[in-house]
């Protein structure tokens, strides 16, 4: 069963269980997937669906910071619940340690110097390896830490 079918089945279950948060979150995710398919005139496979779901999670995480600044703990809680619902459908994310290993391996393989100027040279290949498995902000933080030469693994 594909991811779109799994979303549809879980949507039906959430409706039967009167789980409003799950139902609404899945409904919004399905709408975003459908909108992308209409806009791009292409049928998404599971990888494409995962990419859309990751965008949905990122949008909610970005909004969390704004809610925190505004003191809207009610909205923070709701968005955290939505993020948990969406995370069920994406692959397990890599830990920072695993990302660090990939960054170090890539830098060694490409013979990249540990300077901030090498950021672009290293980010592209690393993101190619971890796409869909790690948050871009986490990768950026690890790459910056690595390039700053903080003394780890030297």
Verbal overview:
It is a single chain. The protein is mainly α and 154 residues long. The chain has seven helices and no strands. Helix 3 runs antiparallel to helix 4 (73-87) and helix 5 crosses helix 7 (136-147). Helices cover 75% and strands 0% of the residues. The protein is globular. The chain has helices at 3-17, 20-40, 46-70, 73-87, 96-110, 119-130, 136-147. It starts with a helix and ends in a 7-residue tail after the last helix.
Mean pLDDT figure: 91
Shape, per Cα inertia axes: globular
> What level of helicity do the residues show?
over 70%
Order of helices and strands: HHHHHHH
End-to-end separation in angstroms reads: 46 Å
% residues in beta strands: under 5%
Number of strands: 0
Briefly characterize the structure.
The chain is mainly alpha-helical. The chain has helices at 3-17, 20-40, 46-70, 73-87, 96-110, 119-130, 136-147.
SSE order and pairing:
Blueprint (H helix, E strand, L loop, with lengths): L2 H15 L2 H21 L5 H25 L2 H15 L8 H15 L8 H12 L5 H12 L7
């Amino acid at each position: 069963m594909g991811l779109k079918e799994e979303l549809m089945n879980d949507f039906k279950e959430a409706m039967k269980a009167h789980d409003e948060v799950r139902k609404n979150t899945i409904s919004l995710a399905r709408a975003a997937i459908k909108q992308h398919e209409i806009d791009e005139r292409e049928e998404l496979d599971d990888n494409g669906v995962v990419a859309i779901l990751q965008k949905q999670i990122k949008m909610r995480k970005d909004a969390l910071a704004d809610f925190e600044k505004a003191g809207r703990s009610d909205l923070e809680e709701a968005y955290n619940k939505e993020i948990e619902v969406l995370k069920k459908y994406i692959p397990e994310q890599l830990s920072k340690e695993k990302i660090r290993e990939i960054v170090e391996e890539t830098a060694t393989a490409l013979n990249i110097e540990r300077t901030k100027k090498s950021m672009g040279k290293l980010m592209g290949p690393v993101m190619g390896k971890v796409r869909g498995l790690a948050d871009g902000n986490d990768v950026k933080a690890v790459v910056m830490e690595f390039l700053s030469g903080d003394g780890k693994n030297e």
